[in-house]
Amino acid sequence: MSKNLLVVEDSKAIATVIKQIAKSLDYQVTLATSLAEVETILQGSTDFFAATIDYALPDAPDGEAISAVLSRGIPGVVLTGKMDDDTRQRILAQPVIDYIPKENSQAFLYLKRILHWQQTNHECGVLVVDDSVSARNHVVELLRRRNFSVFVADNGVKALEVMKQHKNIKMVVTDLEMPEMDGIALTNELRREYTRDQLAIIGISGASNGIHSARFIKNGADDFLRKPFCPEEFYCRMTQNIENLKNIEQIQKAANTDYLTELPNRRAFFTEAESRINLYRQKNVPFCVAMLDIDLFKQVNDSYGHEAGDHILKVLALYMRKHFGAGLCARLGGEEFAVLLPGLDEDQLYNKLDDFRREISVSQLTYEDHHITFTVSIGFTSGSEQTLAQHISEADIALYSAKENGRNQVVIHGQHE
Predict the structure, then answer these.
(1) Final residue of a structural domain among 255, 285, 309
(2) Phi/psi-derived region of residue 147, left when phi > 0, alpha when psi is between -120 and 50, beta in every other case
(3) Is the dihedral of CA 312, 314, 320, 322 positive or negative?
């Protein structure tokens, strides 16, 4: 769903660039070129997700437009051509998202990042741990300007409880000096449970002793801030650590996802399936492992081209998600797929797999000018004693039997032996 962005800018060239950036992020833009236009627009509607605000306008040369926008509860990013310290302090004294000097093209790349973060930061939980109510509220306010989902605790013991309750927490900002469990001890405990790929930790201290930054880092923190800190530095540190986490997440996803179907790949399937099977065994949940293969797939590629073949693989993945949503589906390679299905006995599993097979066989896909039909063969095995490798091997044998016995069928391991 697109969001409304108010762009306050009297330079036509800069307004055009901001509009292009906003459009690429699916914002709907309303432009104001003066303070008078801003006030007219806001009298009609204040339904804006965010605003970019030029510091100096023809009728508002000293940042008057900033308070006009912020007073309506609209988060704002200030763009300014003035770089003196007095102007910077006046901007930062107001609850802005950030300010960006109009120095070069990097300013607009940074603006794009900010506008993107405003849309996505709500997905990221941040836990603020501090026994000082005023200090804690200050950090919470800074985070909420950036649309983070914020959680709080007043000591390390309570922080660990909050972490267990909220799985979307990706960052902890913790003070050093706290009762019951201080920030160093909390950092140490968190690192027992969460790797640096899973959680970022920023330590904070008002103590003058410089050793605390090193202690935080050596105990597993990713960064450190000394009180009092300015919002600008705080946001830079937050952004850097959150971006690092997201970059790692993207790399891991790329390494574990089949590029074509977006299903887990072979490596991801074996890792996740092992974990799930161990859990099923602990809870005495029945499960099966199935291998399925598109029949005569080479003929499809030869007759209609490899792009048509790719289209069929994508469609098959969609059908798998539809039928086996509670299970684990993966593309192992080529036209071969695997499924781990829990919670059903052998007869129920057979019926579920056969319903899937039947729906595939009666479907007709349209690709360009072609109408393509295809079928799948499926082999599966159930039981709880075998290893995953043994399950895969048995399902593969059953799949071979399905192929040998005419294709377009489901075979249970041992059925034709």
Answers:
(1) 255
(2) left
(3) negative
Classify residue 261: in a domain, yes or no: no
| For helices 306-323 and 346-362, angle between their N-to-C axes, nearest 10 degrees | 140
Is residue 24 within 8 Å of 108, Cβ to Cβ? no
* Cis omega (within 30 of 0) for bond into 228: yes
Per the domain annotation, does 247 fall within a domain?
Answer: yes
The answer on pLDDT for 365 being more than 70 is: yes
Q: Is residue 390 within a helix (H) or strand (E), and if so which, with residue range?
A: helix 388-404
- Tell me which residue has tokens 């450190």: 224
Strands (DSSP E) along 130-274, which ranges? Answer: 149-153, 169-175, 200-205, 223-226
Which domain range does residue 238 map to? Answer: 124-255
Is 154 a residue whose pLDDT tops 70?
yes
Q: Residue 175 domain-assigned?
A: yes
What per-residue confidence (pLDDT) applies to 415? 62
At residue 143, φ and ψ (nearest 5 deg) are -70, -40
Q: How far apart are CA 181 and CA 197, in angstroms?
A: 24
6-33 pLDDT tens trace: 999 999 999 999 999 999 999 999 999 9
Backbone angles phi, psi at 267, to 5 degrees: -60, -45
Task: Using the structure block, give the residue that is written with the tokens 């289209």.
Answer: 311
The residues that bridge with 365 in the sheet, in sequence order, are: 372
- Residue closest to 395 by CA, chosen among 378, 375, 408: 378
Residue 338: name the closest of 300, 289, 372, 303 by CA: 289
Residue 341, φ and ψ in degrees, nearest 5: -120, 125
When pLDDT is averaged across residues 331-352 and rounded to a whole number, the result is: 91
* Whether residues 151 and 232 fall in one domain: yes
One-letter amino acid identity for 118?
Q
